[in-house]
Amino acid sequence: MFQIKLNDQLKRHIEELKKSNASNKELDMILEKDCVSIEALIKMYEDHWQNRVPLSQLLKPLNFQFKPKRIARSDYKPEFKEYLENLKLQQQEKDYQQLISANRELSTYEDEDKPLTPAQINRELKEQVTTVFNILVSVVSVAFAFWYWSGSSSGMALHYRVLISLFFGILILIAEVVVYNSYLQRVSDAKAKEKVKTERTKVVKRIVI
């Protein structure tokens, strides 16, 4: 939007109008701004100067005055600027957390798909063999204990001694397997939680260079 800048002749005619209309605030504003809108100029010309002076004469020389370009955020209050800055920092932190989370999930999937190394395979085999051996030792020990007790203390028949030994041996076997599976499940859950754990980073202060 632009306005017409007051030249000497136009300014003189407006000052003459001002003398006869001292209370006219619009004329004061026009003289103060040193420019007039096209609508206001046409209205003044039709009301006061149309039969006295040509419009072309009033507009010589003709200069335009453009409104200054508005600078974004220049009219914001300091509190509102600070609020916008905080929103920007929060959004940056949110984007960063989403990026970190996505990278961790991708890393987790890559770790799950990664083949085991020979050392890891050897360690797992050793753990499994040791576990099986310990379970067998427990089962045999319990079965032998009941076999010995049923023969020396109670004097049971042979077939009862066999059944009791087998029963308690199988019972111990089931218990050992349940306990071992529970242990493996807890270890697996702990690893999964550790992999998906999100690192939270908070922006304390930002320095603009």
Automatic annotation (TrEMBL):
Record membrane topology: Multi-pass membrane protein
GO cellular component: endoplasmic reticulum membrane; Vma12-Vma22 assembly complex
Subcellular location field: Endoplasmic reticulum membrane
Organism in which the protein naturally occurs: Zygosaccharomyces rouxii
Keyword field: Endoplasmic reticulum, Membrane, Transmembrane, Transmembrane helix
Gene Ontology process terms (BP): vacuolar acidification; vacuolar proton-transporting V-type ATPase complex assembly
Protein name in the entry: Vacuolar ATPase assembly integral membrane protein VPH2
Stretches that traverse the bilayer: 131-150, 162-183
InterPro entries from the UniProt entry: ATPase_Vma12 (IPR021013)
Main location: endoplasmic reticulum
Domain of life (superkingdom): Eukaryota
